[in-house]
Specification:
- Helix 1 packs antiparallel against helix 2 and helix 2 runs antiparallel to helix 3.
- By secondary structure, the chain is mainly alpha-helical.
- It contains 4 helices and no strands.
- The longest helix has about 30 residues.
Length: about 130
């Protein structure tokens, strides 16, 4: 029964990460198509960056605590990337540079989205 509850916790944590990343991509797409100004887009994205990092850290910790070693090891590169962004102070979107870095920010979040979707399928079928 504990495994079922752990699986549900992993599943909903991954869904939360998925929702956060899709929200960031929608904000960037709205900015690209000029539906929203750069300040609003940057503030909306920056508001959810730290919750994304914390959620990923909690997920990696939960994998480690529950003994899912392979999933924990597979989530370490994503966690390392987030920690590296945070320590270099590159985790927030700059309002003045958002148009110059728009393609990079979209690619970065699409890669993260693909990684989380891969984890979701691994969590569902493993």
């Amino acid at each position: 029964m504990v495994d079922v509850w752990a699986w549900l916790l992993f599943f909903f944590t991954l869904i939360a990460l998925l929702i956060i990343l899709v929200y960031q991509l929608i904000c960037l797409a709205d900015l690209e198509f000029d539906y929203i100004n750069p300040y609003d887009s940057a503030s909306k994205i920056n508001r959810v960056v730290l919750p994304e990092f914390i959620t990923q850290g909690v997920l990696c910790f939960l994998f480690l605590v529950t003994g899912h070693w392979v999933m924990s090891l597979l989530s370490v590169p994503y966690l390392y990337y987030n920690v590296r962004l945070y320590t270099r102070r590159q985790h927030l979107v700059d309002v003045t540079e958002i148009f110059n870095l728009l393609n990079w920010e979209k690619k970065q979040r699409l890669f993260k989205l693909g990684y989380v979707i891969l984890f979701l399928f691994m969590c569902l079928f493993w």
